[in-house]
Amino acid sequence: MTITPNKIPPQSQDRQPALESEMTPRPEYDDPNYKGSGKLQDKVALITGGDSGIGRSVAVYYAKEGADVAIVYLDETNDAKETQKAVEDLGRRCLLIEGDIRNESFCHEAVQKTIDEFGKLDILVNNAAEQYYEPSIEDIDSARLGSIFATNIFSMFYFTKAAMPHLKEGSTIINTTSINAYKGNASLLSYSTTKGAILAFTRSLSQPLIEKGIRVNGVAPGPIWTPFIPDAFGGDDVSNFGKQVPMQRPGQPKEVAPCFVFLASEDSSYMAGQVLHPNGGVVVGA
């Protein structure tokens, strides 16, 4: 059953990134009724932030569709191993790559490890991000600004550059942006700004890569119950999370992952530079 806002108790975590294993209730990353049909059979996907939240769900759904996956994460090893087990239980391989995506050298190493393990790369999912609650612009210092841009947008440049020599016609790149790129969010100023940059990156990158037969698209989730929430908000604010959208509840990762399947598969063969909006019914501009 999909959770509703009043079933989320007040909670917080004193680490960034937060751990999915310590969330109450646990996010729902898999729908047992979802049956794969080989849409990504024998493809290889690299997913940043694949240890938990949306990234974990994408890894599981890709495995259901026949793909092997490499997941990149910072230091949430237990969460990453849980994702790995879920993928392997579906009969696919899952490579764990731990490191800091703010470091360009690491991003290149992660891509190379994927190639060394699987022999190719078909799908790049730029999903990892960090987020901070900021009541005022005065709360944002240069260190935080540098960190959030390095994690949320610079890493997408790093991974895409590293992946390009290995991508071929039919490959796909999918970037996770946010509803906040369209609506803005006064209390998530730095995060929302990076997500706007990701939207521009997605649209701009898509155009020259069309000539290479590589499609670039994005997904802009609304309020989704992931480890982002207890580490960014915490306390009573968490129990109200998601009530602001027309559906009056937070979404689950499993409600977002099918968008990534669609954009990675031939079902979206006539789409490039576009963004899908699993956001609980909020109508946003193009």
TrEMBL record:
Basic and acidic residues: bias regions: 23-33
UniProt-listed Pfam families: adh_short_C2
Biased composition, class Polar residues, residue ranges: 1-15
GO molecular function: oxidoreductase activity, acting on CH-OH group of donors
Top-level taxonomic group: Bacteria
Keyword terms: Oxidoreductase
Region: Disordered, residue numbers: 1-37
Alphabetized InterPro entries for the sequence: NAD(P)-bd_dom_sf, Sc_DH/Rdtase_CS, SDR_fam
Protein family membership: Belongs to the short-chain dehydrogenases/reductases (SDR) family.
NCBIfam families named in the record: PRK06701.1 (NF005214)
Name used for this protein in its record: Short chain dehydrogenase family protein
Lineage of origin: Bacteria, Bacillati, Cyanobacteriota, Cyanophyceae, Oscillatoriophycideae
